[in-house]
């Protein structure tokens, strides 16, 4: 008797879908790639052809140059070899998708990275019933329970209000996190201009082109030091303690990441204002998602695989960890 999902081959550099002769999120160039989203640990350049959402293809074009891309919209399906393939929202970043594979009466959902919380910059996660659910495990430990998003943004706004002669310099990854912080500030009524490090400009522009309202954004390079007092300044995490920040008015250093839950990480990066804001599901959201979808098997990728596999096994859900490599925390 055939084993469930035996037509999928997990390799260290990606998941090979044998009856479609295609790879999901391969970390090295392949002839045919199905890509869940645009972060560099999932989307690489150099593939012969790429199938992804239009937004993900736009991000890849922006980062790697023009791709041999085939856009697949949310809810659309296509046939590749012997497999019916669809893309549904993952709620992670703009254009992020779960890849739904139907073959031989079995359904497999490869979720990529996902979160369950509302995000004004991307479509919300859509649960899909399936036989096998391939889940990430970035924050798959019970200690990781993300606080309310609005409360974290309120901390930022309050620090700004009480320090009108300073700026708050927020380190945030260029794809997804930076745009989400800006959009969440707008949702909370913060209408003042937000100043950008040059490395964030291209992807912010791309988000705006795809209909995400980020309000007024100004480049730091064009601003005088005094102009930025009392304002939010956004930069990549690597620029937080860089010489570049010396041009700012006595910055209060902040960083937006789920890893800010770990105090040692905040101290290592000299972060004065840690903002626990993640684009990944926390422990409760991971386990609630598995309970909601109720798959026959769970395959766990990159992260704290052991804890999530153990949780599944104690609930009589068959589970296994996949030894995928090359996945970083670029996006969180």
UniProtKB/TrEMBL annotation:
<dbReference type="GO" id="GO:0004521">
    <property type="term" value="F:RNA endonuclease activity"/>
</dbReference>
<dbReference type="InterPro" id="IPR026360">
    <property type="entry name" value="Xnuc_lig_assoc"/>
</dbReference>
<dbReference type="InterPro" id="IPR036866">
    <property type="entry name" value="RibonucZ/Hydroxyglut_hydro"/>
</dbReference>
<dbReference type="InterPro" id="IPR050698">
    <property type="entry name" value="MBL"/>
</dbReference>
<protein>
    <submittedName>
        <fullName>Putative mRNA 3-end processing factor</fullName>
    </submittedName>
</protein>
């Amino acid at each position: 008797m055939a084993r469930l999902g035996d037509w999928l081959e997990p390799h260290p550099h990606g998941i090979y879908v044998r009856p479609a002769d295609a790879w999901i999120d391969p970390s090295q160039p392949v002839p045919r790639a199905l890509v869940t989203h645009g972060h560099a640990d999932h989307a690489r350049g150099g593939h012969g052809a790429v199938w992804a959402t239009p937004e993900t293809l736009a991000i890849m074009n922006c980062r790697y140059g023009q791709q041999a891309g085939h856009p697949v919209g949310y809810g659309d399906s296509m046939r590749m070899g012997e497999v019916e393939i669809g893309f549904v929202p993952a709620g992670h970043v703009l254009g992020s998708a779960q890849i739904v594979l139907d073959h031989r009466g079995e359904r497999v959902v490869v979720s990529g990275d996902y979160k369950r919380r509302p995000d004004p910059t991307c479509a919300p996660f859509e649960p899909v019933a399936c036989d096998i659910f391939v889940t990430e495990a970035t924050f798959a430990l019970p200690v990781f329970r993300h606080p309310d998003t609005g409360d974290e943004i309120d901390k930022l706004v309050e620090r700004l209000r009480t320090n009108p002669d300073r700026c708050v310099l927020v380190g945030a990854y260029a794809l997804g996190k930076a745009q989400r912080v800006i959009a969440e500030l707008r949702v909370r009524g913060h209408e003042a201009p937000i100043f950008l490090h040059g490395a964030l400009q291209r992807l912010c522009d791309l988000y705006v082109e795809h209909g995400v309202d980020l309000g007024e954004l100004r480049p730091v390079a064009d601003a005088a030091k005094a102009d930025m007092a009392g304002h939010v300044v956004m930069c990549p995490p690597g620029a937080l303690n860089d010489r570049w920040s010396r041009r700012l008015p006595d910055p209060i250093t902040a960083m937006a990441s789920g890893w800010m839950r770990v105090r040692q990480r905040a101290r290592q990066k000299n972060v004065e204002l840690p903002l626990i804001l993640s684009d990944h599901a926390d422990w409760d959201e991971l386990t609630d998602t598995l309970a909601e979808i109720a798959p026959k098997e769970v395959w766990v990728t990159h992260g704290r695989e052991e804890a999530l596999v153990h949780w599944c096994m104690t609930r009589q859900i068959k589970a296994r960890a996949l030894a995928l490599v090359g996945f970083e925390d670029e996006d969180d």
